[in-house]
Amino acid sequence: MTATAGYILAALLAAAIVFIGARFLVAPGIAAVGYGVPTDPNRSEVRAYLSVKGVRDIATGLFVAILLVDNATHLAGWVMLAATLIPIADAAIVLRHGGAKPIAYGVHGGTAVVLLLTAALLLVS
Fold first, then answer.
1. Which of 71, 77, 86, 124 has the greatest number of C-beta atoms within 10 Å?
2. What percent of the chain has pLDDT over 70?
3. Which positions ≥6 away from 117 have C-beta within 8 Å?
4. Residue 51: CB partners within 8 Å, gap ≥ 6?
5. What's the confidence (pLDDT) of residue 125?
6. What is the value of pTM for the model shown?
């Protein structure tokens, strides 16, 4: 039961981050607002960074999906635990650059909590 819950959460997180990454490629302005630090995606140098974030998000989701398909429960748990650093850093970046506090704490902080819970479920199974 614990592993199943962990797998479901991990799969949902993997799908969500792939979606978010795709959104940075397809609708970078909307994605930047959702991240918490709106910017001008019409500037080529800004769009380049938003594209980098999109590709990295997609790859991160695929890494988790590969582990789940391989049934690598404990390894997936460790990856989820390490990945917790990403939303924590994202929250700090949003706050440091005057972004939306509700997104920093709610979206990025909430994601960190869900990642920790998912890692715990996968590691104890």
1. 77
2. 100
3. 9
4. 24, 25, 28
5. 81
6. 0.92
